[in-house]
């Protein structure tokens, strides 16, 4: 019995020792794959989402850059196209300012036809108007007293066109920058033109064409004059004449003195600037001034010259009655 108890006790001790050794080996054995916890799953999912967002953001950024480049190219192309369109419109505007009006009839009666067309630019960039006359009368005719009035300021009043029987003749008249500048005109808005025609087969009184009036797409602009430099010579019955008593140098370096005439009457005037030279010579000019215009006359002068003006009313073929003769005024040099 005692031996059996002793053997049972020894067996229990050996079993306990084996169990204790087995527990120790479990810590040193390789760990098997384990299922992640909920917290670990959340962290991994966040990392994956961040990585995915990062990729998407990179793709979006790359797409945005490409879109920006495309938009920039489109904008540049539009800007370039807009610039070209703007240039084209500007060119059209300039062309519109140059080509003011098409061929227009001034007269078409009794075998005489007169047309005018403008403007075209010459090689110097100055405006030209073309006058064309056809003569189907039995005798030669001549147009003279050609009037061009820009914005109420008389610009050109000279020149003539002789047309033989059965012929058509064209002449060009230039509205030079110098003429416009002397008239104080910077830009033209309204322009009118008229001619007088005479011939052996016509009546004693010359024929006058209709007045053609054209309007440009620009606004009228007139230069301000320093009237303190001018001396009044005449002021009566709607006619005023001023003389620039201090001469100046023009664009060509010549010395000139201007005479300003304001004709507010219904009559055509003949203005005679008369220069008394220092050497005793006297020179005179003739200038036709239509009704209701201002006219600037250029007077070329020298040291010691004096000037006075004769104002006459024109009747028929320069058969005039003298209206007034001003006093002589010294012209000072610049």
Structure explained in plain terms:
This protein is α+β, with helices and mostly antiparallel strands and 334 residues long. The chain has helices at residues 2-28, 38-98, 177-182; strands spanning 101-109, 112-121, 127-135, 141-150, 153-156, 161-163, 168-175, 185-187, 190-199, 207-208, 212-215, 221-222, 230-236, 239-244, 248-249, 255-263, 269-276, 282-284, 287-289, 293-300, 306-313, 321-325, 329-330. Strands 4, 5, 6, 9, 10, 11, 13, 14, 15, 16 and 20 form an eleven-stranded mixed beta sheet that branches. Strands 17, 18, 19, 21, 22 and 23 form a six-stranded antiparallel beta sheet that branches. The chain has a four-stranded antiparallel beta sheet with strand order 1-2-3-7. It is globular. 20% of the residues are buried. Residues 1-7, 9-35 and 91-98 have low confidence and may be disordered.
Discrete helix count: 3
Order of helices and strands: HHEEEEEEEHEEEEEEEEEEEEEEEE
Strand content: 35-45%
Biggest beta-sheet profile: 11 strands, mixed
Please state the average pLDDT score.
74
Classification by helices and strands: alpha+beta
User: How many E strands?
Assistant: 23
For the termini, the CA-CA separation is 161 Å
CATH topology of the domain at 101-221: Immunoglobulin-like
User: Outline, from the CA principal axes?
Assistant: globular
Q: Bin the helical content.
A: 25-40%
Query: CATH H-level name of the domain at 101-221... which superfamily?
Result: Immunoglobulins
Pick out the low-confidence regions: 1-7, 9-35, 91-98
Name the CATH architecture of the domain at 101-221: Sandwich
Identify the CATH class of the domain at 101-221.
Mainly Beta
| Rounded Rg | 50 Å
């Amino acid at each position: 019995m005692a031996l059996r108890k002793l053997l049972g006790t020894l067996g229990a001790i050996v079993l306990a020792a084996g169990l204790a050794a087995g527990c120790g080996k479990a810590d040193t054995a390789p760990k098997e794959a384990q299922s992640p916890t909920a917290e670990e799953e959340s962290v991994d999912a966040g990392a994956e989402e961040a990585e995915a967002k990062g990729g998407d953001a990179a793709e979006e950024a790359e797409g945005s850059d490409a879109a920006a480049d495309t938009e920039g190219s489109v904008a540049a192309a539009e800007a370039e196209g807009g610039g070209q369109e703007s240039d084209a419109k500007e060119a059209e505007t300039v062309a519109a300012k140059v080509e003011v009006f098409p061929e227009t009839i001034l007269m078409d009666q009794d075998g005489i036809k007169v047309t005018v067309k403008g403007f075209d630019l010459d090689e110097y960039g100055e405006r030209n108007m073309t006058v064309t006359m056809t003569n189907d009368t039995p005798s030669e005719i001549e147009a003279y007293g050609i009037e061009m009035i820009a914005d109420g300021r008389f610009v050109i009043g000279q020149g003539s066109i002789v047309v033989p029987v059965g012929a058509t003749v064209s002449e060009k008249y230039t509205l030079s920058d110098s003429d416009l500048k002397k008239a104080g005109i910077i830009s033209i808005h309204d322009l009118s033109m008229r001619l007088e025609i005479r011939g052996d087969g016509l009546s004693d009184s010359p024929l006058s064409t209709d007045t053609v009036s054209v309007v440009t797409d620009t606004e009228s602009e007139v230069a301000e004059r320093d009237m303190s430099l001018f001396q009044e010579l005449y002021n009566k019955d709607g006619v005023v004449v001023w003389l620039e008593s201090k001469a100046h140098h023009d664009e060509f370096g010549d010395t000139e003195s201007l005479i300003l005439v304001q004709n507010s009457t219904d009559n055509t005037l003949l203005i005679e600037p008369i220069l008394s030279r220092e050497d005793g010579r006297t020179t005179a000019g003739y200038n036709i001034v239509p009704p209701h215009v201002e006219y600037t006359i250029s007077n070329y002068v020298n040291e010691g010259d004096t000037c006075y003006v004769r104002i006459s009313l024109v009747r028929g073929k320069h058969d005039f009655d003298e209206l007034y003769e001003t006093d002589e005024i010294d012209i000072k040099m610049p």
